[in-house]
Batch of 4 targets.
Target 1
Amino acid sequence: MKISLDQFDKAFENRIRLQIMSVLVANESYDFNSLKELLELTDGNLASHLKALEKEAYMEVQKSFIGRKPNTRYSVTEKGRAAFKKHLQALENLIKQQKL
């Protein structure tokens, strides 16, 4: 079976978005500052990648306050989970194809 490039999701071609989705799929939700620290990114860099994933409806944003401090949490949507799973499956199939 030949792997077609359209089986890969362009949203996950960037390693940062791939990392963000990995974290969100593995956890119920994650807040902005924790993601920033975990992935060692600047505010602007993280925000732009989160916006790209949000635009695809792959994650949801929940804004709240903890005391007087704003807190922004992210969680994966079912659409995002399915797209991520499909992308990983395409990667696995590509790897299996390389076996002689």
Target 2
Amino acid sequence: MLKPLLEEFLKVEGVSAAVVVGRDGFVIESAVSGKVDIEALGAMASTGLGTSEAMGNTLGKGELSQMLVELEKGPIILSPLSADELIAIVADTTSNVGRIRYELKKNKERIVAAL
């Protein structure tokens, strides 16, 4: 049930991967088009999100809802799904970040329910 939900992100222009990762960095499920090292992505996404959550807590800024990493060749969007899982969406420079964020917000509860 989870894989078809992740595959929906691949229909958004520029998206090359949607990956659900455990907080331990291990990939739970993925949908990928093209060449993406999902194992490395999982490990780094877990670490990056955890560090950003700690920063928000330390600074008294509250819970992290989403993290956007803007890179030369496209964005990576990270978002916690639960206490144990997160999602990472990898895109290229042709993508519309707003559309990706909208799709994530629209489908987040369905993804969590499928875990």
Target 3
Amino acid sequence: MSKKISRRAFLKGSITIAGSVAASATGVSTATALTREKKEPLATLIDISKCIGCEECVYACQESNADKYPNPEKPYPEMFPKRVPIEDWSQKRDVTDRLTPYNWLYIQHATAKVDGEERELTIPRRCMHCDNPPCVKLCPWGAAKQEDNGLSRIDSDLCLGGSKCKTVCPWDIPQRQTGTGLYLKLLPALAGNGVMYKCDRCYNLLEKGEVPACIEACPEDVQTIGPRSEILEQAHALAKEMNGYIYGEHENGGTSTIYVSPVPFDELNNNIEKGDGQAHFEKVENKMASGNNIAKAMLIAPLAGIAAAAGKFYKAAKEDE
């Protein structure tokens, strides 16, 4: 499916066009006035069979989000007690083979047999953007949020770097950078030692009616974005066509990142690089279906709301100064 069609599907599902819109062969103009409206959540279909591992998406992500990356202050304050380690990626910004605070998308590699022939498969990996994200529901500071369009993101201005989001994420996606964020001004020796970072689905581009940078830059049309129900229909049609497999539809109760692969995901999982900053392809039960997590979320919600409001007030006061 072409990027033009993907863009139209995205616009149809995520926004309402205010006024008349002139469509042309190059697609809908993003300069047109747009009004956000709560609609069906967006999802992304990633066709693993198309990816050639060129990393154009990786570099487009870095370029598009460079102004969101941390600029830590050194020397770093000493933590007390020394329970939270320093995590400093500021001198390793060129790392692209895993997730870091400066690299929110990377290409994973696996060797598998496709139609009887051994082949290297390359797979774009980033946040799965869960339908019911534990990182959002269990953040004690209200720094993680889920937008109306389904994407989840971490507000770096409110995050204290406590890494609860990473602990509860089934794929350990968020990554910490020490020496940046609100903790430096509030509790530099006692708070979370930085800020957590992950893919935010280029929310600022989505708000303007544009597609995420990784999709725009891909030369092979590996990714398609649109309303989740339509994306799932496309995923099932594609899986049937290639006699393939789907990942993300039910994992952790459902995600907005849907992979289609020509080989089983347990086979991929056995052949990919896994570890810190390198996500797995295991089956994942719905974490928010746990009674304990539901109870925690209910207790955290009012506290997180108060913390988020206090953080916003503090930030606004500092900006006024």
Target 4
Amino acid sequence: MDLAATILLNGLTLAALYFIVASGFSLIFGLMRVVNMAHGSLYLIAGYVGYAVFEPLYDQDLWWAWYAGLGAGIAAAAVSGALMQKLLLGWMQGQELRQALVTIGVSIIAADQLLAFYGGTPRQFFAPDAIFGSTQVPLVGGYPTFRLVQIGIAVVVGVGLWLLLNRTKLGMMIRAGVDDREMLGACGVNVPLVGVAVFALGAALCGIGGIVGSTAQPLAMGQDGRFLLISLVVVIVGGMGSVTGTAVGAVLVGLAEQLGQALFPTYSVILTFVIMVAVLALRPQGILGRA
């Protein structure tokens, strides 16, 4: 029971991180139909820029160092995403292959520049004292408090994103643009501006994931590819453009990964792709995706 509880909690905290990162990808890929293969690069950009702000403040023992790093990482990711949409992807709407090739090129360039500027040494944030240490959890014992906070952050992100898409005027425009961009433009809406705003929002969510993930585990080169792949799997399993589906997909993938590492570590990654293949075979649009 103790082992099962630990695996379950590890899976949920990992799923929370996957959901935060994949929710931004779902917003961009699922709703805007933009194939952003540089989504993982936004994770790295947020992490390294945030760390550059965090490190000198932490050395001065300032309590708000982590929060400053979080704000800087989110801003860096959002600005990078907005520029990518405005300068590169805005005129490629509906050209999925071209979008994929261009964003792959952007991801390669971004990774090389970050490596040249920051080096290959892994970095890691330290959580503020208020969310540092351990918390007693039934059946598990002492468990890192920050990992529990991850779940809370994911819940806040999920609820906020659902309210944005379903209860605000911007959400109405986003959903209308998915079905009929021409009609939305004919109604007087600045569709390109909405696209930039949505892309910036999706990038900012990835930025949150970059700081949160770099606090729970070291930030290192190569994680851009990992989180891009995870985001793809989560969105495919849950359903493109569905916040609830993204959450379901993240939970399934997180639990499968932790269960695999506990039972057969060498082949744990297979479980994730078995889930994806099964969903694609039985429900190609995803568990909660639209046909």
